[in-house]
């Protein structure tokens, strides 16, 4: 189960209540910063924009590929560890607006995580250190450290132990 806070709304669907939940000018500022960062080829500039204008926690040497789409409403609820790669056109959400409620949840992505292109990370998810998320995956629940996951619905392809065993076998084969 994802760790989200739930807020009920009355009347129209929750998206109609958007500017009761987040200030309009914050959305405009965040949108502008995110759009600039999506297209810039300079990784250090992207990280600087995210840290200084969006108040995100972004680790050293983390790389956000071209076209990564961060949550426009609550980017400050996203944290990414050091030396992590977020693949092309990946979306990371910290909110979801539904018919009768909206939900907010922190997204925590660990150190040395690899998230493949065109993946979607949903609110309230933690991805552990050294995890690998295959391209096109919808991350709808936590991913344990060192685990390789893929698909929609997401499933574990290799556990941390299986990944370590594969690495050991590969190292042995390279020696011989």
UniProtKB/TrEMBL annotation:
InterPro entries with a match to the protein in the record: Hexapep, Trans_hexapeptide_repeat, Trimer_LpxA-like_sf
Coiled-coil intervals: none
Entries under Pfam families matching the protein: Hexapep (PF00132)
SUPFAM superfamilies: Trimeric LpxA-like enzymes
Name used for this protein in its record: Acetyltransferase YvoF
Species of origin: Paraliobacillus quinghaiensis
Taxon lineage: Bacteria, Bacillati, Bacillota, Bacilli, Bacillales
Protein's gene: yvoF
């Amino acid at each position: 189960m994802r760790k989200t806070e739930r807020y009920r709304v009355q009347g129209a669907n929750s998206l109609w209540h958007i500017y009761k939940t987040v200030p309009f000018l914050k959305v405009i500022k965040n949108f502008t910063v995110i759009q600039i960062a999506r297209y810039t080829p300079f990784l250090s500039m992207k990280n600087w924009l995210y840290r200084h204008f969006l108040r995100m926690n972004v680790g050293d040497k983390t790389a956000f590929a071209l076209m990564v789409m961060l949550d426009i409403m609550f980017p400050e609820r996203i944290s990414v560890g050091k030396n992590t790669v977020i693949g092309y056109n990946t979306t990371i959400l910290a909110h979801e607006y539904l018919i009768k409620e909206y939900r907010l949840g922190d997204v925590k992505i660990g150190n040395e995580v690899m998230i493949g292109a065109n993946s979607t990370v949903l609110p309230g998810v933690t991805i552990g250190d050294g995890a690998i998320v295959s391209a096109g995956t919808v991350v709808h629940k936590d991913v344990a450290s060192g685990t390789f996951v893929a698909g929609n619905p997401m499933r574990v392809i290799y556990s941390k132990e299986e990944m370590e065993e594969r690495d050991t076998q590969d190292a042995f084969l390279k020696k011989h």
